[in-house]
Amino acid sequence: MFERFTKDARAVVQGAVEHAEEARAGTVEPEHLLLALLDRESSRASFALAALGVDEHRDAVRRELREVRRRAGLSQAETEALAGLGIDVSEIVARVEEAHGAGAMSVGDRKSGRRWSGHRSFSRGAKEVLEKALRVAVARRERHIGDEHILLALAVRPGVPAEVLADHGVTHESLTRVLGDGGGQACA
């Protein structure tokens, strides 16, 4: 499948691996793909993000993704659902960090201080995003998978990246408007 990826899409995949390494995560997650997309310049995805006003909010998006990691990967919707059951996730995180140190619940962090070396595998979620990017490109009748297809896949797939993007006005619909519909077919 990677032979169909454009240079920009390959750079996003490589950037996601680098973000996973920096976070000392055992696997590459969809959030790492979003972070790598935020790093890009002069690509179709970066153009779409800029057109939708994310340029002014890149740091806020990065902070929100860090906060999700701190909450053990729970999205805001999951946090609110637990609050409806009387479970205060913020209080739980505060107590765990008080007992075990800051970032104790962070997804993927390794406390040993050693860097994990070797091949970073992709989580099921990250693989689903890349497969969805292929389906998006096919639905748009495009031969190659670009970074814009990865962005569209992140926006349409339920999860933390889609939630964080939507909080900043980036939805599958808004991206389709900015990028054009590429054939008019839905890719959900």
From TrEMBL:
It comes from the Bacteria. Pfam families: Clp_N (PF02861). Residues 2-185 form the Clp R domain. The keyword Repeat applies. Keywords: Repeat. The keyword Cell inner membrane does not apply. SUPFAM superfamilies: Double Clp-N motif. InterPro entries: Clp_N_dom_sf (IPR036628), Clp_R_N (IPR004176). This is Peptidase.
